[in-house]
Specification:
Layout lengths: L22 H11 L2 H6 L3 E5 L8 E2 L10 H4 L6 E3 L9 H18 L7 E4 L16 H7 L2 H17 L4 E2 L23 H17 L3 E7 L18 H8 L1 H8 L5 E4 L3 E2 L2 E2 L4 H11 L5 E3 L4 H7 L7 H11 L13 H8 L5 H17 L22 H4 L8 H14 L1 E5 L10 E5 L15 H4 L16 H8 L4 E5 L12 H9 L3 E7 L25 H9 L5 E7 L8 H4 L2 E6 L5 H10 L54 E8 L3 E3 L3 E10 L5 E10 L11 E10 L4 E9 L5 E2 L5 E3 L2 E10 L2 E11 L3 E2 L9 E6 L4
Parallel strand pairs: 1-3, 3-4, 4-5, 5-6, 6-7, 7-10, 12-13, 12-14, 14-15, 15-16, 18-26
Antiparallel strand pairs: 1-2, 8-9, 11-16, 17-19, 19-22, 20-21, 20-25, 22-28, 23-24, 24-27, 25-26
Helix pairs in contact: 1-14, 5-16, 6-7, 6-16, 7-9, 11-12, 12-13, 16-22, 18-22, 19-20
Length: 793
């Protein structure tokens, strides 16, 4: 098909290459000059792997796809390059050179010379060989510290931008609904406000570095039945609106995210990839999102082969386009020849192609990819001799000291001390029995989307590429005078009982046992946590509980350390361990952070982003349960957690008092102001996390017993006190009413100032007055905290 309209150009430069013209005018001119094949080529990517010697990328062969012929595709152009760094281990400098040369090939092969958008995974750091592996998102949630997450994301973004990447496939904004789901480690937690604030901070950081942040998975993926990956989500519209959508609203409105990835799931029979009311009606028409919607990998093809709502590839492509999907990833399948044929025979209107293309080209224009002076040389290679690949090797450092210091700061803030009978911090123990499958495993700190666990495991002959000290290494450095005896006990999930006797013997001859248990991250059943690694119950994998129980019977105090991707029920150990230290895949500096907490060098300040269950089979449940979800006399299943959402201990103590409420009544469009004093009553510096929960005693629809509406970290020296003031807008009490609209209702509320969801310290009863008021996505999301000097006396 030929160009369909006349366009304004000049002999010197076409209008679309003029950066002084409005983006919309540039895009319209370019669309008018393109053939159908050229248009469609901008709406898909190709999965590639960078060359290990700096040559052009090679198409990645995947069992879902036929081989891709780049020579046949590139004359029409190419929309995206999928994971050039995250497909195989490649030196970062040579990967950047490979991407550069490929971009030159792409621009030279087509009429318009449009570069591709290169995207990468960045869920726990840039997923590239030798790049810093940061803590997983569940650890971000445990920090209750949006600022440190923003700084981390900015560092990740700078590294990606330096080597030529444009888009990052993060953050995950799914709210945990069932901890049996394998991808819990990729989430920020079980509360939508925590997920929204931490996720928005990540978006801000990534976007500040010029990287397009991609929100995923929109929406409902984490609400799958029985916690199974890629399964139907039986949620109702109110759960979707009040629990699962708010983090996306916040990240779009406040974070400025420029891309959204649809979810794999289907809800009430409608797959997210074909849900026009979701991807166009809500996302664009209501929220005003003007970025791109990208397919989760193979998600459009799944409309045919898994969801069964399309009879062929063209029908799948048409359904996704109509719904609002703009880009097929990871490679061309349905948006190639099948879509072109469907447009030609009238099954898919070309206007849908143009609509998606307008968004894609608009984003490329804002990235500078349509400018005449666009330069394919990324900052990391600026000034380098590009003709000497061997000289480039090792010149790009993606795991420098600043990255590792930041990774360590997050890991330290994310360690949660669940229980402690006074055994911790350890006071120069003479003999330590270090037991468990994760005690000497360097990769035990990594999640499934870290490069070593996601890609590196497929290349066992290639070094990991980053320094991963084991807990044995860091404890030896922390306690240089101690005699440390190591016993594996059992594997993570092999069920082997033969080593338990030796572990118990080591415990019997020690002053303290440090039992290091938990998960091994992997993909699709190759791990105990990660994508496709769902579990039937929340019992510790393998024979780890048997090992732990045997150690408790030894009579030696047991410090239980968990390196895991989800919370686990610990049986009798929840009450009988001398201490429990929880860390969710804490990244490259994770074992140093844990050793610091054990020794007392670091005062723990992490708080649980997910509840720790008391029993392994009481799922699904989160702290957001309504009254009927609580323990009762009419069921023999008690869902009460062993440790609730927001829980975490420190090595000091805090007193909360002096609650004052400026006014106990406000209209439904008003606000309340509360203040309290928090004092460090212990003998060392510490951090208290003040959490604000809302309890609505009577509402027109069933509400959770309580839900988080605000939080702040308060750092205090021994004896120091601060006045914590919080302004609470009525908007935070809103919920979806019976007619499907979000409302603020009049009536009494309890504002609970708490150290966790199970530890309320002070409560203010207030009243909203006046008529019920309708609100929308422009409502006020936050209770605003400020810290002031404490009053004297």
């Amino acid at each position: 098909m030929t160009a369909n309209v006349a366009v304004e150009t000049t002999p010197e430069a076409p209008l679309w290459n003029d950066p002084d013209r409005p983006v919309a005018a540039r895009v319209d001119a370019l669309i008018g000059a393109m053939t159908l094949d050229e248009k469609i080529a901008q709406l898909y990517g190709v999965w590639v792997g960078a060359s290990a010697n700096g040559g052009e990328v090679a198409p990645h062969q995947h069992d879902m796809e036929e081989a891709v012929d780049l020579d046949a595709l590139l004359p029409h152009g190419l929309g995206q390059l999928t994971r050039p760094f995250g497909t195989a281990p490649v030196d970062p400098a040579l990967g950047a050179l490979s991407l550069l040369r490929t971009q030159n090939r792409i621009t030279a092969a087509s009429r318009f010379g449009i570069p591709a958008v290169a995207h990468e995974e960045c869920l726990a750091g840039f997923a590239a060989w030798r790049a810093t592996a940061y803590p997983v998102p569940l650890s971000w949630g445990a920090t209750f510290d949006p600022d440190v997450v923003r700084r981390m994301a900015a560092a990740i973004g700078r590294d990606m931008r330096a080597v030529g990447v444009h888009q990052g496939l993060a953050p995950v904004l799914d709210v945990v609904r069932d901890a049996r789901w394998g991808r819990v480690e990729e989430t920020i937690g079980e509360d939508p406000y925590l997920v929204g604030t931490i996720g928005t901070a990540y978006v801000r950081g990534l976007e500040s570095a010029g990287i397009v942040a991609t929100l995923k998975h929109f929406v409902g993926y984490s609400a799958s039945r029985a916690g199974r990956n890629l399964a139907p989500s039986p949620m109702g519209p109110r759960e979707r609106a009040d629990v699962l959508l708010p983090p996306f609203e916040m990240a779009i409105r406040e974070g400025g995210a420029r891309s959204v990835m649809h979810s794999y799931t289907d809800t009430d029979g409608v797959p997210a990839a074909a849900d026009e009311s979701l991807l166009t009606g809500l996302l664009r028409d209501t929220w005003g999102f003007d970025g791109t919607v990208v397919a989760d990998y193979f998600g459009i093809a799944f409309l045919r082969i898994l969801h069964g709502i399309a009879g062929d590839w063209a029908e799948a492509a048409g359904a996704a386009l109509k719904a609002g999907v703009d880009i097929e990833l990871p490679t061309v399948k349905t948006f190639g020849a099948p879509l072109a044929a469907a447009v030609t025979d009238g099954r898919v209107p070309e206007s849908l192609i143009d609509r998606a293309l307008r968004r894609v080209l608009g984003q490329k224009a804002m990235l500078g990819l349509l400018d005449p002076d666009w330069n394919p040389v990324p900052p990391a290679l600026d000034g380098a001799d590009l003709d000497d690949p061997d000289a480039l090797r090792g010149t790009v450092d993606l795991d420098g000291p600043e990255n590792r210091a930041l990774a360590r700061e997050i890991a330290e803030k994310a360690v949660v001390l669940l229980s402690n009978d006074g055994t911790l911090p350890l006071a120069r123990p003479r003999r330590i029995a270090l037991v468990g499958p994760n005690a000497t495993e360097g990769t035990a700190v990594l999640g499934c989307y870290s490069f070593p666990q996601h890609v590196g495991v497929q290349h066992p002959d290639v070094p990991v590429g980053i320094d991963l000290p084991t807990l044995r290494d860091t404890l030896a450095a922390e306690f240089p005078d101690a005699d440390i005896t190591v016993a594996r006990g059992t594997g993570v999930d092999d069920g082997d009982l033969t080593g338990i006797g030796a572990a118990v013997d080591a415990a019997a001859h020690a002053d303290v046992v440090v039992a290091v248990l938990g998960d091994r991250a992997g993909l699709f059943g190759r791990g105990t946590s990660g994508e496709g690694c769902d579990t039937e119950s929340l019992a510790l994998p393998g024979a780890q509980q048997q090992l732990l129980d045997a150690l408790l019977d030894s009579g030696t105090p047991v410090v239980t350390v968990l390196l895991a991707g989800r919370p686990y029920a610990l049986g009798r150990a929840a009450a009988e361990s001398a201490a429990i230290v929880q860390s969710f895949f804490p990244g490259v500096a994770g074992t140093q952070a844990i050793a610091g907490v054990i020794s007392g060098r670091t005062n723990p300040s992490g708080r649980l982003p997910v509840s720790v269950p008391r029993a392994p089979g009481s799922q699904p449940t989160t702290y957001l349960g309504a009254r009927l979800a609580q323990a009762s006399e009419v069921s023999n299943i008690d869902p009460t957690p062993a440790f609730g959402f927001g829980h975490g201990l420190t090595y000091t103590s805090f007193a909360w008092d002096g609650l004052a409420v400026d006014a106990d009544q406000a209209p439904t469009d008003g606000e309340f102001t509360l203040a309290l004093t928090v004092r460090n009553t212990g003998d060392r510096t510490g951090t208290e996390v003040v959490q604000l929960y809302l309890h609505d005693p009577v509402a027109s629809v069933v509400q959770p017993v309580q839900r988080l509406v605000g939080y702040t970290r308060v750092d205090l020296e021994p004896g120091e006190a601060r006045r914590v003031r919080v302004t609470v807008p009525a908007d935070v009490a809103s919920f979806t009413g019976r007619d499907g609209h979000r409302i603020v209702e009049p009536g009494d509320l309890e504002l609970r100032l708490a150290a966790s969801s199970t530890d309320t310290r002070l409560t203010a009863t207030v009243t909203l007055t006046g008529p019920a008021r309708r609100v929308d996505h422009t409502r006020r999301f936050h209770a605003a905290f400020s810290l002031e000097p404490a009053p004297e006396g």
